[in-house]
Write a structure and sequence with these properties.
The chain is flat, with a radius of gyration of 30 Å. By secondary structure, it is mainly alpha-helical. It has a three-stranded antiparallel beta sheet with strand order 7-8-11. It has four domains: 111 residues, no CATH class; 77 residues, no CATH class; 103 residues, no CATH class; 68 residues.
Length: 395
């Protein structure tokens, strides 16, 4: 466990800063460093944090005051479940040593620092930023450290149904992306919330068949869907179904998710979300980036934009490759008498486009189909403008 008190302050750099910030009382200024950081015993009873390794020593009044300052500055990094216990013990030590007025003054000063600090933070440091029509701005869930990032992630995960009711998909996407980006920049792992956040952030792909089924199901479960809207949704489902086997263009899919989100608001589908009627992001981004990592490791992309599972190449024979590309390449991609899928993937990914087209044809004749197409070749059949027109129909 990371030491947050004066005993973990290398070269006492933070202590020198705190002395200036808080204007230490005389009894703390005059104390020897050894009196503040070197208790005579390591007994848990003289520490405010009794967990191992013990922290915030309070064996005399100078040590107790300094420990209080470190706690005020570092409390956001302490688990909320034990934070209040530590504060209570610090208050008890402050009363015992007769320095309660000094610690209360420090608490007031610390609060003023935090107000200033929050006010100076950019919007990007908050998970939620909302600008009102009257020009006011609401900012919630600052993300300055690990605990605050995890608190923001927990809030999003716990209150997602309520967040969906109040904010559109694109607004939710913005919030989820900010939390994920901040976690990544601070090297914070949030496995409990990652799946929910990645889907909400639009970081993933899905099978168009499932996406088309979701769109068609909306026609059935929506309340009094107008004919022009149902016809437009059916055309959209057909367009989506005609893409490659996975969406590979998250930007287009995000626009689609926003359109369906607007439909759900207008036709009272939000309160029907369930396993049978999933939220758009739970289908459109069901294969999250994290889950796709294994897929990427096993994928081979040719210059035609086709993406294949490398393991499927084992279905090819050496004679297939020799007849198409000659003996030299056939030898290069085989191990013994069989095609080596990894070797063939290495060669296939560098083939010039005409040769790659021949390779695609060979794979198709052998019953091997792409598992995806690159984004440039698989944009959803509806353009952004057409989706906008559909959204206007929905509203």
């Amino acid at each position: 466990m990371k030491k947050l008190d004066q005993t973990g302050d290398t070269n006492f750099r933070e202590l020198h800063q705190f002395v200036r910030l808080y204007d230490f009382p005389e009894f703390a200024k005059k104390a020897e460093l050894s009196d503040i950081v070197e208790p005579e015993t390591n007994s848990a009873r003289i520490f405010a944090d009794v967990r191992t390794p013990h922290q915030f020593p309070c064996h005399n009044k100078a040590a107790a005051y300094v420990s209080y300052i470190y706690f005020l500055e570092k409390q956001s990094e302490i688990n909320p479940k034990v934070r209040e216990n530590i504060r209570e013990r610090l208050d008890n030590f402050a009363n015992y040593w007769g320095i309660g007025l000094a610690t209360k003054s420090a608490t007031v000063k610390s609060a003023s620092f935090k107000e200033t600090t929050l006010g100076e933070l950019p919007d990007s440091s908050f998970a939620f930023v909302w600008a009102g029509e009257d020009g006011t701005k609401e900012r919630r869930y600052p993300m300055r450290n690990e605990l605050e990032v995890k608190a923001a992630a927990s809030w999003f995960n716990q209150y997602l149904p309520e967040i969906r009711e109040q904010y559109s998909f694109l607004d939710r996407q913005t919030v989820a992306n900010k939390i994920l980006d901040k976690a990544a920049s601070l090297h914070i792992n949030i496995p409990r919330y990652e799946d929910t956040l990645e889907k909400a952030a639009g970081r993933g792909w899905c099978d168009p068949t499932a996406a088309a089924a979701l769109i068609r199901n909306r026609i059935k479960v929506g309340h009094r869907v107008d004919s022009p809207v149902s016809e437009a949704l059916e055309k959209l489902a057909e367009s989506v179904e005609g893409t490659a086997s996975m969406f590979m263009d998250p930007a287009s899919t995000a626009n689609l998710a926003e359109t369906i989100d607007q439909f759900d608001r207008t036709y009272h589908v939000l309160n029907k979300y369930s396993e049978a009627v999933p939220a758009p992001e739970d289908v459109f981004f069901s294969a999250t980036y994290k889950e796709a990592e294994e897929f990427v490791k096993d994928a081979c992309t040719t210059t035609t934009g086709s993406v294949y599972s490398t393991q499927d190449f084992s279905k090819l024979s050496t004679s297939d490759i020799r007849d198409l590309f000659g003996d030299e390449i056939a030898k290069e991609v085989t191990t013994g008498l069989k095609v080596d899928p990894v070797k063939l993937a290495t060669v296939a990914s560098t083939l010039p486009r005409p040769d790659a087209q021949l390779f695609d044809r060979l794979l198709s004749d052998t019953g091997i189909t792409p598992i995806a197409k690159e984004a440039a070749d698989t944009r959803i059949g509806y353009s952004h403008e057409q989706l906008k027109q559909l959204a206007e129909l929905v509203n």
